[in-house]
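[job 0412] stage=fold_complex status=start
inputs:
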Amino acid sequence: MSAADGLTRPVERFVQAYASRMAAAVIALVIAFLWVPIAVLVFMSFADGGVLSFPPDQLTLRWYRVFLSNDAALDAIVTTLTISVPATAISVVLSTAIAYAVDRYVFPGRSWLQLLATLPIIVPLVVTGVAMVLFFKGALGLPGYVSVVVAHVVRTIPFATLVILPTLLTFDRGLEEASKDLGADELQTFRQVTLPNIFPGIVAGGLLAFTLSFNEFVFTYFVKGSGDPTLPVYIWNQIRYNVTPEVNVISVVFLVLAVTMVLVAVSLTRVELLARR
Amino acid sequence: MAEASGEGGASDAGARAGDRTAALTSFFRDHPRLRTLAVAGPPYAVLLLFFAIPLLAMLVVSFQTGEIGGPWTLRNYMDFLGSSTYLTVVWKTLVISVQVTFIVAVIGYALAYSIVRFSRRTTLLLLLVILPFWTSYIIRMYAWINILQSDGVLDSTLNMLGLPAVSLLYSDPAVLIGFTYVWLPLAVLPFYASLTNLDGDLIEASKDLGAGPVRTFLSVTLPMTINGVVTGVILVFIPTFGSFITPRLLGGTNNIMIGMVIENQFKSAFNWPFGAAIGMVISVVVVALLVLGTRLGGGLFATGGEEA
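[job 0412] stage=fold_complex status=done
writing structure:
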């Protein structure tokens, strides 16, 4: 024991003396690791020679102009929106219902509902994607568009629920009691008291669901047939078969959109809630 | 409330709508089970029909041969488990997943610990960690293609410093870097949560009893936060094990992972039952890990609410 102490004491003393500097170094290095690739992407989107020349000879807006006149890329954005917007709306309504039911009601199968709403995060995406394409096409015969929207709803429900549920758990239940004491029924109380109180959480959940759906690749890739590609599928094809510098520009557009959405969501709720994906 | 009672200056139509709402709400008040069903039923139905049942359908299809609806057989599983090629792929996938999980756990824990114990700007730092996580997975991989390709950003920078180029793209290290990059933020959050919940008095007590920072970390902090560690490890291991995007984009031709084999069966070989069988094998591995993780104390479902 004392021999071990003798060996570890210098280490302990070193750590004691330098701990805060080591922590600062870890934070700086890891955050640089996370952000340098994004900075590179943004920088390269202005590079005249495109992806294959670093450092670039000249900076230019050329690739932004190319992007804006590329109908395939713009169509992909429209296609993505026609999926993400309805999927987000459906997902938010269902997630709010899950959160409300799980928080307020006791019923058989309640913990199963919670498990079902969490599992899509945990089952590997490729497995769920494959299962969906088998069932949606093979058994249900759903059209491609409906399949993709449904897949996006399933994908986004866990995240929206994880954000909405805590806002429901934490807001002052006394307000609802007061409303009921004053003669309001449950539906009126929900519409006039509960909903306005949890609305920031619902908006935050919706923004995250939208961000997730807009970026969603694996489910879309499997479930969607040969129709118009969504933006992530379009980028995947570009990267795999013919990389053009324009992909940098599309990436920057993506990044700005995602960062804006998440910042708004964070301003509406706690940062820790956005953790799980 | 005025609309429900339909008094005062409300029009006939408004009054009728109000009566209907009132009738509906009192009906649901008298039938609490139907009320619960009206709220919980739709999401339940959606998740069962479009998530749970497809997974069961995959199980059924995995026992069919050649095409969907073919005769029952174990052939897909025998072909898969009897082939040394596929078993090598599974082994390689396991090795990569363990490596990625270990790297992410060490770096992620060091980061979470540094933020919790030594920083005051926790919200800003957490935001900086999770923001990249909410950007497109494909785009994050593409950023690394820009950096790692031969004569890319990394090589050019090394050249400028007078160092030899490394041309990492399409290699094992590229795959490890890519995975570490995408999963790091995912692991930091459960680590962060468990470290924040740790009672600071325990650390003080350990120090009062004469333990140095390393000893305190090893005998108090790490054991007390093991739940968060297990949760983070599961959250990283499972998606890595099933991944096909990162190895396809950053890995070389030798970097075959099991997710790529599934993708191939569905997108090129069109042998869906065989792909379904491999999907089942992955699911079995994942479920086994989840059970193991729960035994070790990981709280994967704890975030979903107060329900145990």
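[job 0412] summary: Chain A touches chain B through 111 residues (CB under 8 Å).
[job 0412] exit 0
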